Amino acid sequence: MTRFALRGILGRKLRTVLTALAIVLGVAMVSGTFVLTDSIAKAFDAIFTEQYRGTDAVVTGKSAFVLTNNNTTAQPSFDESLLAKVRGLPDVRAALGGVAAQAHLIGKNGKAIVFGGAPNLGFSVDPSQPAFNSLSLVDGTWPKDSEVVVDRSTASKKHLHVGDTIGVQAQGPVVQFRISGLVKFGAVSTIGGATLAGFDLASAQSLFDKRGKLDDIRIAAKAGVSPGKLVAEVQEILPPETRVRSGSSQATSDAKDTNGFITFLQTFLLAFGGIALFVGSFVIANSLSITIAQRMREFATLRTLGASRRQVLASVIVEALVMGVVASLVGLFLGLALAKGLFKLFDVVGFTLPNNGLTFETRTIVVALAVGIVITLLASLRPAFRATRVPPIAAVREGAVLPPGRFARFRVVGAIATAALGFAGLLLGLFGHGLGTKGVLVLMGLGALLIFIGVALFASRLVRPLAVVANPVARWTVFILSVLAWPLFALPFWLLRFGAWGSSSTGKRALAFVGGAVLNPLLLVVALAMIVRKAATRWNPEWPAEFPGVLADHSATSIGSENSQRNPQRTASTAAALMIGLALVTLVATLAAGIIKPFEDAVNKIFTSDYAITAQNNFDPIPVSAARAAASTPGIDAIASVRGGDGRAFGSTIQVSAVDRSIGRVITIDWKNGSNTVFEALGANGAFVDDGYAKKHKLSVGSPIALLTPKGETLHLVLKGIFKPPTGGSPFGAVTISSSAFDAHYDQPQNLFSFVAMRGGVTDANTVALTNALKSFPNAKAATRDQFVKNQISFLKNILNILYVLLALSVVVSLFGIVNTLVLTVFERTREIGMLRAIGLTRRQTRQMIRHESVITALIGAVLGIILGLILGGLLTARVKEIVFVVPVTQLIVFTIASIFVGIVAAIFPARRAARLSPLEALHYE
Amino acid sequence: MSSAGGSPLSGAGSTTTEAVVVARDLTRTFGAGDTAVQALRGVSVDIEAGKLTAVMGPSGSGKSTLMHILAGLDKPTSGTVELAGTEITTLGDNDLTKLRRQHIGFIFQFFNLLPILDARENVLLPLTIAGEKPEDGWFDELIGQVGLGDRLKHRPAELSGGQQQRVAIARALVSRPTVVFADEPTGNLDSSTSGEILELLRKSVETYGQTTVMVTHDARAAAMADRILLLADGVIVRELPRSDAHEILMAIEELNRR
Ligand SMILES: Nc1ncnc2c1ncn2[C@@H]1O[C@H](COP(=O)(O)OP(=O)(O)OP(=O)(O)O)[C@@H](O)[C@H]1O
Ligand SMILES: [Mg+2]
């Protein structure tokens, strides 16, 4: 029997390929994700290992608690006197002190050099101790005073050469350095988009505002001394705000953040692979169901020849298994190509990922294959069991229909129960208490999954009414789209073919051909290919063809519409695949709109002055001196800043912010207790919080707050005021103190935003003046309120676009699903289409008929998906108070039109097949 | 009248050959209520071993229904069928499957070959399904008999109707079933091809003693049979011994006149 299953696959190549594609894409996504993230992880691993080459132990500053990784606060530095003490230890062979901080290289255009979100690393280098040096010179010399070495990839991308002068901005204004050499980092082929800037120790210390201080001491042990012994020895003499680790454990600790990021990226991308596979399973189940219905007579014949139900089941499952294996293998290797492509793509957009060659782990192979095969098998189960229900007598009965499954009568109840269970899971995840983030996500994911399955099962009941509604919509949108596309596609294509084969004067034909080529040069290629094919083979293109019109043929579309309702189950299953993608896209759009709207409101409410100063990338902290420089702008009325850092209060790590006394002149907030005088009264120990935080910790004006700083000091604060943040949030952290208090207890304080009020408000002259004042801080920029909102949202928009692209994958899978259903349907209706052709249906009408069915199916999927997406969005926004429910009308219209496009594109190939059936052949077909 | 005499048309007990299929009081009703159709209204029949039995009758008289029930494809509304000593109307799907493998062969009007398999594979299909191998020489002999020698590698789509039915006959015979059922095996073929196919069926009965039941509309086909059952309105109204086409036509005329 197995052999027949294999034969079945080979005998139905097109169907198998179309069905398998659904799995190929999902598996490719899974394997691509693994390859990509493994490769990044390996590259980072190489970087971190290289970093501590020759280092047996490392002394670093130690914060009082684990810092968050939003990079407002760095590990505290320590006094450089420690170095001498370390060097004096008996087992220490060598020790090297260094400093490191963010340092922006300033390009020739005066802008900071940034590649995507990659870091800009500045550090001290000491060539006299090469054992500790993970850099190697590729050109020039090591830096002396007022000199810098930069990495060669930045140098080549930005055309920097040894001897050039380059600006560097770190803790203060831009300082000019001479490039003394170009370096590369160990054996790592690319370290991603990070820029490297190395200085001699003294220059680095002054540039980073760390005079007399160090960030780390690297220590090499004398021969025969184990790192453990060395660490223990160093430990003895360490002051409390420092720690010592072995080189390897320091590398592991450094890698923690990146590993966290990589794990997140992996989970995130895998989720989309999972969605694509889920959609793929619908496509497979549907294709197999249709195929099995069409092969009923074959199964019945097998039964009369003595095949048992088990054998029929096995033959279908083996067929699915083989398909699953092949599709997963193809997907696995496609994933490899995908990862390669993604590296290239990121590189092109400037976000170079660290890359040290692609990593193809055994785990990738195992997981990708297992997932693909298991999903295919699961999807084949229902169709396979239905196949076993084909009675032997179907071998002799004309037009026998597949008997309904044993559970068919429970279908509606089952569908509703499944969806209800899904909603229950979702609601429990959203509103239940005491679930971890993981638990919430798992519950919500499972809930959504069940909802999709439930709705898909129920959808066959909705096909008729929805098709009735979709019919005119499909007709009109296709008409409008045809009108729009007519001059660019239909007309030039006809003109080109007329030019090639028309029976008219040479002049007219030449004119037509040129006209067509001008209107759409792309079609010229197609036409040329057709001409070559006609000349080279016996192929006969359709000519003369009707002059292209745009009006939908009413009778053709009517048949198409009826056809879509003929087998509601099939239409529903096909549409359901698209529904999933659309529901998720709608959900994402709804959430984005729900975040953006209150954010805009909040900014408009709080930001009542004229300009805001932020980093070029809108979120990095900027040196405090930038605000000082801006303060000297002529015409300035007021400038006040918000700083940020990590802190710990009431047992949890929080975001601490700090404000200037005059902040009340540039922003407006609603006070619950207190007024703008709170800003001035903060002093050395005053604080204010938002009402949510106050409520959570039962605080009222006068309450004490003990705030632990990263350096280990405890500030005993007194609550001076409570404010009500708007829904969209505020620029403040959980606890806000005065900037003078902040600067006294935090190293290298940095601003998140500075707000500026100018005399005369926003004017071109003021903008120029402010920008000029910031000239020596190229990483800072001034933005008006509208620009500020846009800048802040741009990050969200980028994420949104990434989500859309990833979800598009599952929409593509569902597109294949529609193609597949249509191809199978055309195949099944060969006789019928032949009959229609025989009684006068033209090729164009045939194409329109198929296309209309396709568009209606797509529209049903779109409508169901959008409704479902809005419901899911509504539930989520009800849960998260920072997000409001906003219907993203424009996006929904775009999605609907995109779905119609999916329908049109999906129909191209099947419609061509149907149109090419000759009436005679079709009637002959058995 | 038939040689079996006036009493039970089945002629049970009156012949020396043993019966391999024994049906008693079969009725079959399709649908229910107003639209109910009584396809069989009490048929008793014995199919004798080693003989070719033809079933004839007007369209809608219940021939196919009877055959389906005898072959275990359909269940009677009442009555019993014993095939090779087993009561089959109460058998479950698994036992029926086993019974089919061992005792039943089918020849269909529309051939029902598997389009993806070549002729050889189609012929061997019942054995493959049962996980068996053909006896030595049997397959070659069979292929020689049906005259397919040079066509074994062809797929059904590359064969003529007659050739396809030859494949189907070989397929029905390959497992040497107790009884072969054929519903209008020539219904889809032209008359000269029909003749060849009928010759083949006749030969299989004579050479191998293959018990065969054949439903047909064609008096010429029935003339090849050892015994002819005439069905009308769901009952066997008459039975003829081996007769020539003319006699059969006369008998049918007579029926129609009644
Ligand atoms: N599956 C069915 N459902 C309902 N009625 C049926 C079914 N099968 C057969 N019948 C009815 O039972 C009666 C006998 O049908 P049957 O197919 O046995 O006739 P037949 O003698 O084989 O006719 P023909 O020579 O046309 O093949 C007919 O009236 C037919 O309409
Ligand atoms: Mg019949």
Explain what you see.
- The complex is a heterodimer of chains A (926) and B (258).
- Chain A folds into 6 domains: 1-51 and 256-402, no CATH class; 52-255, no CATH class; 411-461; 481-551, no CATH class; 552-607 and 785-926, no CATH class; 621-778, no CATH class.
- The two termini of chain A are 24 Å apart.
- Chain A has 926 residues and is α+β, with helices and mostly antiparallel strands.
- The model of chain A has no long low-confidence stretch (mean pLDDT 88).
- In chain A, strands 17, 18, 19, 20, 21, 22, 23, 24, 25, 26 and 27 form an 11-stranded mixed sheet that branches.
- Chain A is built from 27 helices and 27 strands.
- The longest helix of chain A is centred in the first third of the chain and has 48 residues, at 247-294.
- Chain B is an alpha/beta fold.
- Chain B has a single domain (19-256), classed as 3-Layer(aba) Sandwich (Rossmann fold).
- In chain B, the strands form 2 sheets. Chain B has a 6-stranded mixed sheet, sandwiched between helices. Chain B has a 4-stranded antiparallel sheet with strand order 2-1-4-5, covered by helices on one side.
- Chain B is globular, with a radius of gyration of 18 Å.
- Mean pLDDT of chain B is 87; it is low at 1-16.
- The interface between A and B is medium-sized, with 26 and 28 residues.
- The structure holds adenosine-5'-triphosphate and magnesium ion (MG).
- The site of magnesium ion has 2 residues of chain B, from α1.
Rounded to an integer in angstroms, the radius of gyration calculated over CA atoms of chain B is: 18 Å
- Would you give the CATH topology of chain B? Rossmann fold
Give the class of chain A from helix and strand content and strand pairing: alpha+beta
The pLDDT mean of chain A sits at: 88
Instruction: Tell me the distance between the termini of chain A.
Output: 24 Å
Distance between the termini of chain B: 15 Å
For the biggest sheet of chain B, the summary is:
6 strands, mixed
